[in-house]
Amino acid sequence: MKKRHDIIVIGGGHAGIEAAWAAASLGADVALITMSWESVGRMSCNPAIGGLGKGQIVREIDALGGLMGLATDRAGIQFRMLNRSKGPAVWAPRAQADRDLYPLAVQELLSTARSLDIVEGTVEEIIATPHLDSEKSTDESAVSTSRRIKGVLLTDGRELLAECVIVTTGTFLAGLMHCGLEQTEGGRVGEPGAKGLSKCFESLGIELGRLKTGTPPRIHRDTIDYDVCDAQPGDEYPTPFSALTGAILQPQVQCHVTWTNNDVHDLIRSNLHRAPMYSGQIQSNGPRYCPSIEDKVVRFADKSKHQVFLEPEGYENERVYCNGVSTSLPEDVQTAFIREVKGLENARILQHGYAVEYDYVPTHQTKLSLESKLVGGLFLAGQINGTSGYEEAAGQGLVAGVNAARLLGNQKPLILGRDEAYIGVMIDDLITRPPTEPYRMFTSRAEYRLLLRADNADERLTPLGRSLGLVQDDRWRVFENRRKATLAVTELCSATGIRASLSRPETSVKDVAEVISRGSNRTFCIDAIENVLTAAKYAGYIKRQAKQIERFRKLESFLIPNKLDYHSMANLRLEARERLGAVSPKTLGQASRISGINPADITVLWVHIASLKKQKQSPQHMSPEVLSSPK
Amino acid sequence: MLDQIDDTIVAVSSASGRSPVGIIRLTGSQSISIVEEITNLAGGCCLRDVSGSTRIEGAIAIGADADVPATFYVFRHPQSYTREDTVEIYTIGSPPLLELLRKRMIALGARAAEAGEFTARAFLNGAMNLAQAEAVGALIRAQSDTQLRASRRAMDGEFTRAISSVRDGLAELLALVEADIDFAEEPIEFITPHDVRRRLGEVAQTLSRLKAGSIAEEQLDQLPHVLLFGAPNAGKSSLMNQLTGTSRSICAAVAGTTRDILSAPMRIGRGEAILLDAAGVDQSPDEVISAAREMVLATAERVDMICIVLDVTQPVDEHVVSLARSLDTAGIVVVANKTDLLEQTSLASDGASPPGHTSTTENVRESNSADEPGTASQRESLAHHERGSPSQSRRLMCDVVAELEELSIGAVCSVSAKTGAGMDALRDHLCDALSEQPSIVATEVVALNMRQRAAIAEAAEAICRATEIIQQAAETVDCADILAFELREALDLLGQVTGDVTTEDLLGQVFAKFCIGK
Q1: Which of A405, B31, B86, B216 is placed for a possible disulfide with A23 were both Cys, Cβ 3.0 to 4.6 Å?
Q2: Statement to judge: residues A539 and A566 lie in one domain
Q3: Same structural domain, A203 and A70
C-alpha cells in the first residue's frame, strides 16, 4: 500500500531534524525516513555544538523555534562563551555535548511534534514525474523546473508519496570511508551508505560532485595521563543557547589540551605513502580550515607542535575525542603516533580516525529557497549542499522545512537576508558563489557582522518566526518579556542620565545597574542591561552602515525574471553573461554578489529587465526586433 | 514601477581639469532638499518653493563665511532629464571645490552615481522610448569601459602600484584581525597591537604621500587641450571616439545628445593631449542649452586648439563660423567631417563610382543608422538621390575643401569620423600645431578621477579612526570587532580604485599562513 504524506525528509541528521520539526510545526504531515530511529540526532564528528559563526547560527535556529539550542542545553556537558574578551558582536556560544544524551534529547523533542511519522528504512529511489503543473513551485513563474517530485521508494519495496521531498543525506550519499589503504562503503563507522540515491540524482539530471572530510581517533578516557595535560574548564556561569532555557544546571566537565611533537611528526612523515590523501587514493577537496594532521605536518613543516584537544564524549561515555589530529592513516600508524603524544603514552584507541568521501549536489543547481532548480518539490539541505558542520546543516534544514511547507500552501519562500541572519549569509553564499570545498561559517563572511549578533538573534528573527507560524506561545512570551525588560532599562538609562555614557567602553553592567536601581527597589535582569549596553556600543557603527544596508535591501527587492536569456544581451560583457547565466540570480542584489560582476553590469541588467517590463506593459508599439539584441 | 530604486545620486558632470564651469548634478527625491542645505539664495528664496524648471542665481556656502557664486537649475519631477527631481549646480570649475561639494552632498544623504546611472534612470523612468534601451546599455558599457581603461592605464603607473600595495597590505592586516576573531581557539596570536599600530602607520603614511602626490588632475591640466566645436550633429562625438579610441561619448540618434563637456586623453605624436567634446552650439532659445553654450564658449577661450567640426553634407554653418571668428584662441583647424558621404572625384559624379564606393546609397543608409543620425535635410538629399539625380545632391570633395579654405579660419583637414579616413593627417596636424607646448612629450599620464581620489582620502580617514581605536587597546582582541569594521571600510574604498578584495581572499591568506583547525 502506498502511504501519502505532505513532506518526506530523508535523513535524521541535524538538517533532517530541523527540516522535519519546522515543517511539522507549520502543520504539514511529515515523514522522516531514517536508517534507524536510534541514530536520529547522532553526532558523527566532534561532540560539540556552536563556536565562531556557528554559535550565532544556533541562536538563530532557536529564535526561529528550532531544536538545536534546546537539545544542546539539555545534553551539554561544558559551556563556554568564546571571544568573551572581545566585543559582544563576536561572542559565540559553544558547548561540548554528551554524545549519548544529545540524540535522546533530540528524539524526545521530536516525539512532541504534531504530525511527524518516523519511518525506518533506506531510500533507494526518489520518484519524480515530468511535471505538468507549472504553478506549484516556490517561484511564482518557475518554468525551469521540468520535473516534479512524486515520492520515494525504499529498498524494502515500500513506496511513500509526497508533494515535497527534503534530502539531507550528509556523508551518506555514496559514502566511502578511508583508513589507510582500506576502503569501506558507508556514511559513518558501522553504518551503510545510501548507494542508490546517487544514481537516482544522476537520472534526474542533477550533477554530483565529491567532497571529503575527516575524523580523528577516539581513545579510552582511563588511558590518559591528565596530570601532564592542561585543563580547560567551562565557564563559571554557563550561558544557555536557547531563550527557553532558564539556566544550565547539570554539572560541567573539563576538557584537556596536549600537544604533538617532532617524534609524532616524523612518524607521520615516514608513513605518508600510506595516507590516502597523499597516495592519490582520495582526489576530492577537504576543508582548508580543518586539515588532517598529515596536512598540518606537510604544509607547516616548520611547526614543532600542534594542539590536541581531549574532549570527553559524555558523562558515562568512555570515549575521548582527540580534536586536532583528524587522520586517514592506517590503524597501526595512528596507534603509534598517538602514543608519542604527551599524556597519551598508554592511550588505547577505541575507534580509529578515518576520512570519508561523499557525493554532494553543487549548488548552482539549487535556488535560494533550497529547492532544486531541476526538480520541483525537491529540497536539499546540509552537507549535500557542500557545507560542513552540524550548525550549518541545521540552519539549512530549518529553511528547507519551512519552504517545503510554504510550497504546499502556495506561499512565497522564506529567504533570509544577509542583513538578517548568518543563515541568510550562508545560503546566499552557497547559491551565489557555489563552494568547491566544504563550506564553514565564519563571522568574517557576514558584512553586517555588528548587526548579526548572538545576543540579538531573537530580536532579529523571533517576530519573523512568529509570523511564519514557527514560534509557539511559550517562546513568544519569553521574547516579549525580554523586550519589555530591555525597554524598561533603556527608559531608565535616559531618565537617570547614564545614557550618554553607555557607549563608552569602560561602562560596565554593574555601573548601569547601580545607577538605574538607585532610589528604587527594582532589580534588573543582567541580560537586559547587557542588551542595552551592546546596542549602545554598536549604534554608531550600525548607523554608518545604514545607507549601505538600505541600498542592499533595495537591490534585494528588485526581482529578476526567471528565464532571462543572458546570452542575447549584447551590452553585457561576455564574462558577465556567462557568470549570470550560470547562477541565474533571483534579485539584482544577488546578481551583484556573483564574483566577476561589476556595478556597470548591474545597471545594464537593470535597464534590460525594465525594458522587458515596459514591453509587457505596452505591447502595441513595441516590435520584438527592437528589444532582442543583435547577436 | 521602478520606484524601489529612487535614492538620490550625485556626480560631477563637467570635464575634469581646466573647465571654467563646474557642474554638479543630483537626481532623486532628495536632491532639492540636499542642495537646499548648502545654498544661499538672493532675497531669502528657497529652492523647494520654486516650480517647474527654473534657473536661480545664488551662492553655495562652503564655510562659515565663504560663499561661492553658483547658478542652480531646478527641474521638478517629471520635467527633467531623469524624470526625477533634479538639480544642476553651475559653479567655478575648480576640482578641489567640486570634490568638496560632492562630498558634502554625500554626507547629506546622496550616493555617488555609478557609470551611466543618470541615463539609466532617464530610461527607467520613461524619459526615453524603448528603442533607445540598446543605446542606453551601450552608453553604460562605454562609460565603464572608459573607467576600466583609465584604471588600467593608471595600474601601469607608480602611483597606483603604490595604491595596490597599500590595499594588499591592508587586506593582510584585516585578514589577521579577522583571524583573531574567527580562530579564537587557536593558540596563535595572529597580530600584536604593536604590529597593528606599525602597519597602520605605514598605510597612513603611504596614503598621505599618495594624497599629496595626487595631482593627477592638475597634471592632466598641463597637457594641451583641444576642443571639438561645432553644430549639434556635426559628428563631434564620433570624432572623439575615433581620436581617443574609445566610445566615450554616445552617438545617439537625437541631436544634442552631448550636454556636458567630456574629456579623454588622446595620443598625438609621441605625447598626449586632452580632447574635449562639448555640447553642440546652435541658436536654440532653450535656457539650459544656452547655458551650456555659454560654457562651451568660455571653455573655447582657454584651450590650446579648437577643431571646428563641420558637416560637409550641409551648407557651411554660418553661425558656427561667426562664433569661431569671434573666439580669441591660439589655433584653429577646420575639420571637414563626413567625407564618406562625398564623391571623391569628378569621375564618380559622372556615375562611375570607384571600387569600394559602388553602392553609395547603401553607404548613406549605413551612415544614418549606425553613426550620425539622419537630419531632415540629409534625408531629403537621400530621397533626392534615390530619385536618380546624384550629381545634384552629392558635392565634390575638392569643391568642399576649396570652399572651406576660402573662409580662411584655419587649415582644413577632411576626415570621416565614421570610416577613420583622414585621422592620421588630423593627428599630425594637431601634433605640429601643438609642438611648442612643452608638456606634449609627457608619455604617460596617470589620470585618477575625482571619485577615485575621494576614495583614497576617505580610506585615509578610516585608517585614522582605526589607529585611534588600537591606540587605546592593550590587546588586539579587545577591539578586533570595531577595528575590523574600519579596516574593511578602508579596504572597500580602495577597492573602488584597484578592485575588490573578497572574504574568500582574506580567508585564503589566513589558511596559507597559519595552521588553523582542529
Answers
A1: A405
A2: no
A3: yes
Domain that holds residue A453: 3-212+358-463
Specify the pLDDT at position B157: 52
Bridge partner residues of A358 (DSSP): A211
CATH code of the domain containing A342: 2.40.30.260
In the predicted model, what is the mean pLDDT of chain A?
89
| Residues 6+ away with beta carbon under 8 Å from B114 | A599, A600, A602, A603, B9
Size of interface A-B (CB pairs under 8 A): 163
pLDDT over 90 for what percent of chain A?
64
CA A114, A117, A122: angle at the middle one, nearest 5?
150
Q: Tell me if A610 and B123 make a contact (CB, 8 A cut-off).
A: yes
Mean pLDDT of B94-107: 82
Q: Under a CB-based contact definition with an 8 Å cutoff, are residues A36 and A187 in contact?
A: no
Please check whether residues A72 and A156 belong to one and the same domain. yes
Task: For residue B122, give Cα distances in angstroms to A373, B74, B88, B114, B125.
Answer: 35, 16, 15, 14, 5
The pLDDT of residue A478 is 95
- Indicate if A264 and A350 belong to the same structural domain: yes
Which pLDDT value is given to residue B221?
A: 52
Min distance A165 CA to chain B CA atoms (Å): 32
Q: Is B187 close to A307, i.e. CB distance below 8 A?
A: yes
Report the pLDDT averaged over residues B333-344.
83
* B contacts of A300 (beta carbons < 8 Å): 515
Are residue A505 and residue A579 in the same domain, yes or no? no
What's the Cα-to-Cα distance from B510 to each of A309, A493, B74, rounded to whole Å? 21, 42, 52
Confidence band for B364, pLDDT divided at 50, 70 and 90: very low
For chain B, domains (ranges, CATH) are 9-122 (3.30.1360.120), 157-215+448-513 (1.20.120.430), 224-441 (3.40.50.300)
A203 and A240 fall within a common domain: no
B342 pLDDT more than 60: yes
- CATH code for the domain of A120: 3.50.50.60
In contact, A359 and A210? CB cutoff 8 Å = yes
Q: At what angle do helices B450-471 and B480-498 cross, to 10 degrees?
A: 160
Tell me, yes or no, whether A587 and A600 share the same domain: yes
Contact A541 B515 (CB under 8 A): no
**Amino acid identity, residue A56?**
Q
Q: What is the pLDDT of residues A489-501, one digit of tens each?
A: 988 888 888 888 8
Q: Is A129 on the interface with B (CB under 8 A)?
A: no
* 8 Å CB contact of B518 and A309: yes
pLDDT band, residue B325 (cuts 50/70/90): confident
Q: Do B485 and A541 touch (CB under 8 A)?
A: yes
Interface of B with A in 201-260 (CB under 8 A): none
On whether any CB of chain A is under 8 Å from the CB of B301, the answer is no
User: With an 8 Å Cβ cutoff, are B144 and A51 in contact?
Assistant: no
Amino acid symbol at A284 = S
State whether A60 and A166 are in the same domain. yes
What Rg do the C-alpha atoms of chain B give, in angstroms?
27
A442 touches chain B (CB under 8 A): yes
Query: B403 with B273: CB under 8 angstroms?
Result: no
B9 grid coordinates: 545620486
Of B224, B256, B238, B230, residue with least CA distance to B421: B238
Pick from A505, A555, A626: CB nearest B130: A626
